[in-house]
User: Which sequence fits this backbone?
């Protein structure tokens, strides 16, 4: 009999990591997440346990005190958190936001920040890109960083900057050269890494959302950042951010695979137990086929996530695969969520079953960190060579 939790027939080199993550997550059952969801609390104890176990430092090289694992291993960690019924969104950015610093920062910046991030003494999980006016059109962002002596002065606003209240550092994308004066279409944007704890002229406002997500809007009012907090070269920030987005998309796709496994597992369990009209509801093809389809969709998406991660780990271009993995996995988790609710009938709506919570949580991935339409337009233009639509 197939186990809904089996997501690949290939030998799994990450089985020991998966087992350790599952053991850790067993201490944080549905009741824990449900209570936080109700009070919109941050999973401090869960994040501390993951940090202590070293999971959030998976992608930091050993020379900086991390575990130096592959993205595929990091993806296995996030997938298992979600397959266990938990949610990694409260801390997944601690894993990957440092990638921009690692790839494009100076030796001095890396030595200053990475060992402390690896230990969890410094939290780098605020990533400020999206703005209220420009939205998905990142090149149109309006927050400015203008050089003034040894500092940059930052003015503007970000929205949906998640975990800002639970982060010490922030990675910020801001405009250093006016769009019309930039030498290329993607130029004029720069990346800064700064300490939010010391910042003056920074206001953080929480945004309550459909699910418990600790997201915020941020206002910069003449906030000064020392010039040595610029990452890489001025004007090259868009390129630096893009290279980190592939890792983010692959890890979040893995979370969606975990969610899909959890929903299918729940649906199968209930369909076997629930007896109506004198037989288990799962004996009806009208109930079992959609669950089987959701399982097949999850397995198919998992292959794409695996391919994207292996290209990333080989240092190859994986823009198309990372996008398609995110698309396929987010669709698979949403389809599984929908069928899990349907299979449970009325109980799908009851808080104590955790399904409605996970349903709300997994809905996000149709929109963030990149919306479905934007992925489709990437594939249409960059993979299929169709005319640019915007
Ligand atoms: C809970 C949450 C957490 C987030 N966390 C972060 C974070 O930590 N840091 C960060 O920087 N951002 C974050 N985001 C922002 C997220 O990346 C954006 O919401 C997302 O990229 C979509 O941008 P938007 O909301 O501005 O939508 P818009 O760009 O306004 O788009 C609205 C809709 O129109 C569609 N659309 C827009 N243009 C086109 C087009 N040309 N063709 C077809 N369809 C189009 C989009 O697909 C979308 O469905 C978060 C968002 C949420 C909701």
Assistant:
């Amino acid at each position: 009999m197939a186990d809904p939790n089996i997501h690949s027939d290939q030998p799994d080199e990450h089985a020991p990591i998966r087992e350790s993550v599952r053991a850790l997550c067993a201490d944080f059952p549905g009741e824990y997440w449900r209570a936080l969801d109700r009070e919109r609390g941050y999973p401090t104890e869960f994040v501390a346990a993951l940090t202590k176990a070293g999971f959030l430092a998976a992608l930091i090289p050993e020379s900086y005190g991390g575990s130096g694992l592959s993205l595929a291993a990091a993806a296995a960690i996030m997938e298992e958190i979600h397959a266990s019924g938990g949610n990694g969104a409260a801390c997944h950015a601690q894993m990957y936001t440092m990638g921009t610093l690692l790839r494009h920062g100076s030796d001095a910046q890396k030595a200053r920040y990475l060992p402390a991030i690896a230990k969890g003494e410094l939290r780098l999980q605020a990533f400020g890109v999206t703005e209220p006016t420009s939205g998905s059109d990142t090149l149109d962002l309006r927050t400015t960083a203008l050089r003034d002596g040894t500092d940059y002065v930052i003015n503007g606003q970000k929205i949906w900057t998640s975990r800002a209240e639970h982060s010490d550092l922030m990675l910020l994308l801001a405009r250093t050269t006016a769009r019309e004066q930039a030498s290329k279409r993607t130029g004029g944007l720069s990346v800064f890494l700064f300490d939010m704890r010391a910042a003056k002229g920074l206001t953080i406002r929480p945004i309550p959302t459909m699910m418990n997500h600790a997201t915020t809007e941020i206002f910069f009012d003449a906030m000064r950042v020392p010039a040595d907090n610029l990452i890489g070269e001025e004007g090259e920030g868009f390129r630096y951010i893009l290279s980190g987005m592939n890792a983010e998309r692959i890890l979040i796709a893995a979370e969606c695979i975990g969610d899909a496994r959890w929903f299918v597992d729940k649906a199968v369990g209930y369909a076997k137990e629930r007896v109506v009209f004198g037989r288990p509801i799962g004996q009806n093809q009208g109930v079992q086929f959609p669950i089987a389809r959701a399982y097949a969709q999850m397995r198919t998406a998992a292959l794409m996530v695996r391919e994207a991660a292996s290209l990333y780990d080989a240092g190859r271009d994986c823009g198309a695969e990372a996008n398609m993995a995110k698309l396929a996995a987010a669709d698979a988790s949403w389809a599984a969520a929908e069928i899990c609710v349907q299979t449970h009938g009325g109980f799908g709506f009851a808080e104590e079953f955790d399904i409605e919570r996970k349903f709300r949580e997994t809905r996000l991935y149709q929109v963030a960190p990149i919306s479905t339409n934007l992925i489709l337009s990437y594939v249409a233009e960059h993979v299929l060579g169709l005319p640019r639509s915007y």
Observations:
- The domain at 239-383 is CATH 1.20.140.10 (Butyryl-CoA Dehydrogenase, subunit A; domain 3).
- Residues 127-130, 135-136, 160-162, 209, 213, 215, 364, 367-371, 373-374, 377, 390 surround flavin-adenine dinucleotide (CB under 6 Å).
